[in-house]
Write a structure and sequence with these properties.
Blueprint (H helix, E strand, L loop, with lengths): L2 H18 L13 H9 L9 E11 L10 E2 L5 E3 L8 E7 L4 E5 L5 E6 L15 E10 L2 E13 L4 E6 L2 E2 L7 E6 L5 E8 L3 E12 L2 E6 L5 E3 L3 E10 L21 E8 L1
Parallel strand pairs: 1-8, 1-11, 11-17
Antiparallel strand pairs: 1-2, 3-6, 4-7, 5-6, 7-8, 9-10, 9-12, 12-15, 13-14, 13-16, 16-17
């Protein structure tokens, strides 16, 4: 075979190799399966939510000096039914609850429905939501399509987030089973404050609110420190959970007393 024939044969082999490799004249490689990948990327994602969810509930005031009122406050973050794959222009309509004691509304800045009680707070309504259940159904319209979603919820008492919350020698941790605030009689003198969180919770800070001659002061105290409680009105413990709700995504906008839906606090009130 002469040199001219060898060159022609080499050229044919080279062209065939480039075609198999997906080479295009522009010099940009084009994978053979690119059409399939583009189709998969442009396929609209379907919005979904948890089929079942347990929602935690608390009452306002408990403890040795509390009234032990009905538990009707649906607590964060479990009070949110988070919707996955919800587009920014999606519309949520036709929200219904099978239990008239529980309502659901769209939460601004969060891809979720917020659950709350329709019951009047103490002392107007003594009905307790522990053990209640409901089916929350709603419709999502996005990308020209409609989707019907639903979630079955069951309400259970929130357990104390503390393994220990001691003031001096007294442990108040169990008093926070099912309550946001624990009432205690005013104390005098110096006491050691110690907090140990229950599994699934992380301590963020401890604050002490005091008043004297009508003026209020708030200061952060170190865990395990000894403080003077003579003029103390309350001790608040801030924390966050490590257990995120199903489909949870950080909110684009958030408003409330705590840093995020994953943060919370409880207070020991002296009165």
């Amino acid at each position: 075979m002469n040199m001219k024939k060898k060159m022609k044969r080499f050229a044919k082999i080279l062209v065939a190799s480039l075609v198999v490799a997906g080479f295009c004249p522009t010099g940009i490689p084009t994978p053979i399966n690119s059409v399939v990948e583009v189709q998969a990327a442009t396929k609209a994602k379907v919005p979904t939510c948890a089929a079942k969810q347990t929602v935690r509930v608390v009452g306002a005031f408990g403890g040795p000096n509390g009234n032990g009122g009905a538990k009707t406050i649906l607590d964060i973050p479990e009070c949110y039914i988070v919707i996955r794959n919800l587009s920014s222009n999606a519309k949520i309509t036709n929200i219904k609850s099978s239990n008239k004691k529980i309502r659901a509304t769209k939460r601004e800045g969060l891809n979720a429905l917020e659950l709350s009680s329709t019951l009047m707070p103490m002392p107007f309504d003594e009905t307790d939501l522990v053990g209640a259940s409901s089916t929350i159904s709603f419709r999502v319209t996005q990308n020209g399509k409609q989707y019907k979603l639903s979630c079955k919820i069951k309400v259970a008492e929130k357990k104390s987030p503390f393994s220990k919350l001691t003031v001096g020698s007294k442990n108040y941790a169990s008093y926070f089973n099912g309550y946001m605030y624990v009432n205690e009689k005013p104390m005098k003198g110096k006491k050691k404050i110690y907090v140990k969180m229950a599994p699934g919770y992380v301590l963020d800070s401890i604050d002490m609110l005091s008043s004297k001659n009508g003026k209020y002061t708030n200061k952060k105290i170190k865990n395990g420190s000894t403080v003077n409680l003579t003029s103390c009105d309350q001790i608040s413990v801030s924390y966050h959970t490590t257990k995120k709700p199903v489909n949870y995504k950080a909110p684009s906008k958030w408003f409330g007393q705590v840093e995020s839906p994953l943060h919370n606090y409880n207070s020991l009130i002296f009165q």
